[in-house]
């Protein structure tokens, strides 16, 4: 028998405003892919389990204060500390469904007034997603869903700025999904675009660095 090159997994990111449905859809998508016989894992950023993640968590819950640049770099460091494991998983055939990634990092910090190019810089060299599914919802509609909690950023005025920042980040890897549809309809659309993406990666689409 000839050598059969192990096919790689896909890096699929879900982005969107607070309450757009990312976490709900990420877990549904992982179940769906596993049901199709595809090895898949659910990941999320911030990953609050690491030391850096705990600093981020304290900041988000307002139990610590940090300079805007400092917290930006911590969010980025939280992705860098997972980069090599991410690469290993992808190369050994596991598809990763990631709840927020570099786009959240840039959109949230730029919304505070930080220079957007400065915000992008520390993300360069992380793994580029094969697909970014943007769950599109207006800040007003998102706010109506269950209301916001007490975490920093969970305010309508700030979410409006984040929505504008996200708009400047769209590129060819983005697919916009209407997040105001019923959960099952959003789910169905995500299944289709994710499956296409997984197949493309299985066929040999190369893994590449994030360059912006
Ligand atoms: N942040 C940052 O600044 N920099 C970074 O680099 C990163 C993040 C990575 C914490 O994120 C904060 O960190 C976040 C950005 C910032 N701050 N904000 N805002 P997080 O991921 O931990 O935030 P979260 O609180 O876990 O997730 P979320 O965004 O609030 O929600 P979601 O995951 O998008 O939505 P959900 O939990 O799936 O659904 C929300 C509710 O809506 C729930 O009651 C659902 O049942 C309901 N829902 C969902 N879909 C639907 C539909 N289709 N119809 C009706 N109702 C629905
Ligand atoms: Mg969530």
TrEMBL record:
Residues 14-189 form the Thymidylate kinase-like domain. It comes from the Eukaryota. It is found in: Nucleus. Belongs to the thymidylate kinase family. Belongs to the NUP186/NUP192/NUP205 family. This is Thymidylate kinase. The chain holds residues 808 to 1019 of 1021 of the full protein.
